[in-house]
Design a protein that fits this description.
Elements (H helix, E strand, L loop, with lengths): L2 E4 L6 H10 L4 E4 L5 H9 L2 E3 L12 E3 L3 E2 L2 E2 L9 E4 L11 E8 L8 E5 H7 L2 H9 L2 E3 L2 E3 L2 E4 L2 E4 L3 H6 L5 H16 L2 E3 L6 E5 L3 E5 L9 E9 L1
Parallel strand pairs: 1-2
Antiparallel strand pairs: 2-15, 3-17, 4-17, 5-6, 7-16, 8-15, 8-17, 9-14, 9-16, 10-11, 12-13
Length: 231
């Protein structure tokens, strides 16, 4: 379920890149430097980072921490609430296919736990008829229409963000029942991981869904996030 590595000056970045190309499981790198510049330069060796609009330096790093504006959370990522399994940037024209998360400050050991599920595990639980439905039915992700499953020759990719899907479109009772069924399936084949300080986790955004459990509002939990297009 997880590829584990340790950060050193001799870390084989090409091996990290190769594992990300395979995309079967997240890659956890222990003892990664807690520095934006290190993270930015490391990601540049793997692909093209997405410039984060909320980074005042015009860089790619985004602080995933509790943050409010006018007494409202700036985003779900900037809240303390549970974040269901999802795809990042599901409404982008071209969705970044890789995510890097660096843990600077974790929550308590029972809170803010990361959750992942792989597309391969999901496909094993779906019937051919269900797979066909999910590749054909179009859903609205804000202003982009796309299916939950996309087929490319003999392989598949996944795009799922129920919050966006239900926020920007009228969803029928039949569709809600389908989404309930999918959520249950995704959770049943998922696994959890508690990120410790200096843990860097990288994973495919098109082949895995990710989420987190909730945590206390006054928590100082801080993750550094970079989205990127793998080379």
């Amino acid at each position: 379920m997880l590829t584990k590595l340790k950060y050193t000056e001799e870390l084989n970045v090409q091996e990290v890149y190769h594992q990300l190309q395979l995309g079967e499981q997240p890659i956890l790198i222990k003892n990664f430097p807690l520095d934006d510049l290190y993270l930015e330069n490391f990601v540049l060796q793997l692909g093209e980072p997405v410039i984060e609009a909320r980074n005042i330096r015009g860089k790619s790093v985004f602080n995933v921490e509790v943050s409010k504006q006018n007494n409202f959370f700036r985003s779900i990522a900037n809240s303390n609430i549970e974040f269901p399994l999802h795809t990042d940037c599901a409404d982008f024209k071209e969705i970044p296919n890789c995510i890097a998360l660096l843990c600077v400050q974790p929550a308590t050991e029972t809170q803010g736990t990361s959750r992942f599920t792989s597309l391969s595990a999901i496909l094993e639980k779906l019937s051919p008829i269900e797979i066909k439905l999910l590749t054909q039915k179009q859903w609205l992700f804000r202003n982009k229409q796309r299916p939950i499953l996309q087929q490319e020759e003999i392989s598949y990719s996944i795009c799922y963000d129920r919050i966006t899907m239900e926020t920007f479109a009228e969803v029928s009772k039949e569709d809600i029942n389908l989404l309930h069924k999918l959520d249950a399936l995704f959770n049943n084949v998922s696994f959890t991981l508690f990120l410790e300080q200096s843990d860097l986790i990288l994973f495919r955004n098109d082949l895995l869904l990710h989420g987190r459990s909730g945590f206390d509002l006054d928590s100082r939990r801080l993750l550094k996030r970079v989205r990127l297009y793998l080379k």
